[in-house]
Amino acid sequence: MTQTLKIKRPDDWHLHLRDDAMLAAVLPETARHFARAIIMPNLVPPVVTGQQAAAYRDRIMAALPDGMTFEPLMTLYLTEDTDPDDVAAVHASGLVRAVKLYPAGATTNSASGVSDFDSVRPVLERMADIGLPLCVHGEVTSADIDIFDREAVFIDRILDPIRRSTPGLRVVMEHITTSGAVDYVLSSTADLAATITTHHLVINRNHILVGGIKPHYYCLPVAKRETHRLALVKAATSGDHRFFLGTDSAPHTDGLKENACGCAGCFTATNTLSILAEVFEREQALDKLEGFASLFGPGFYRLPVNTADLTLTKGAEVQYPDKIGVGTDTVTVFDPGFPLHWSVAD
Ligand SMILES: NC(=O)N[C@@H](CC(=O)O)C(=O)O
Ligand SMILES: [Zn+2]
Ligand SMILES: [Zn+2]
User: Ligand 1: which of 43, 219, 247 to mutate, most ligand atoms within 8 Å of CB?
Assistant: First the structure.
């Protein structure tokens, strides 16, 4: 008897679509399975104004193949020059669903991010007033902090002080990678949630470094030791509404990944749902997948749950491409390192 799992159509609460040829290549990979996604604004130049967000949304919709439906949920990139009134206006218009905080220099295309956190206080206070979520790349960037400690230090030195001084600010800790981040979310009573990526449920730092360096497993925040991966799996499969899916699917061309200075990012859009089903099944938590992928995100973002369903079927090993083409280049699809058996029914 084939096993099937029917869930509400999922959303991706942290996604990089890029622009131009890359956008055209990766958008169908997400739109095939996901109804909506929070679109990261770290383009070059970044999406900092409502006008830029509207233009980017139009480029995304223009790149969507005929017959596919998808709703991009736009974000603004927070800079030290962001005007609270502009933020309030684009929120009121429904164009923008979150503001994204990148500490300057923390990750791909974050040069315009924030160095002086006091300078953005007026924006954060306004966001608390209007209920607009702040998505946070939670890593400090000081050279003296070990890269494996950067998330923990960010929580202590930056995030917790911001939250204490801005009551009511609604925060999504993006792509969490540590048990400390899980505990921090669990310790909060309100206004705090976290996204967890597909790849951080699958790999630890050994996958990146043992037996030769694996550039396609390198992302930021970098995967930590196994105890942390286990804490993430426990959180994701727990049925706690404060943890939901943000794939952080972050395509870079193979030339830029397999490089002496390789870019950070794992491209998981193509096989995310098959991987998640496998991970949840191993935890005997298939009944928790719908909450994680389809229900808790809309709950936090105060949006309706999708009405359409998506069905996963367990069967023969799922075939997916190793790479997808982008113009004359390629992007490597994340390899979970184990066979997948759950496929999404058409
Ligand atoms: N996650 C990554 O490793 N990379 C992301 C940026 C980010 O989400 O930090 C990207 O834009 O490539
Ligand atoms: Zn990030
Ligand atoms: Zn990201």
Answer: 219
Which one from 248, 254, 287, 329 is the annotated catalytic residue?
248
Mutate to test the pocket of ligand 1, among 39, 107, 268 (most ligand atoms within 8 A of CB): 107
Q: Which domain holds residue 40?
A: 3-344
CATH of the domain at 198: 3.20.20.140
pLDDT in tens, 165-179: 999 999 999 999 999
Where residue 346 falls among pLDDT bands split at 50, 70, 90? confident
What is the pLDDT confidence band of residue 128, given thresholds at 50, 70 and 90? very high
Instruction: Give the ligand at the shortest distance from the Cα of 246.
Output: 3
Give 1's pLDDT tier (boundaries 50, 70, 90): low
Per the structure, the count of domains in the chain is 1
Q: Whose CA is nearest to atom 4 of ligand 1?
A: 265
Q: Give the list of residues 6+ apart from residue 302 with CB closer than 8 angstroms, or none.
A: 131
> Strand order in 96-101's β-sheet?
12-15, 36-39, 71-77, 96-101, 134-136, 171-173, 192-196, 243-245
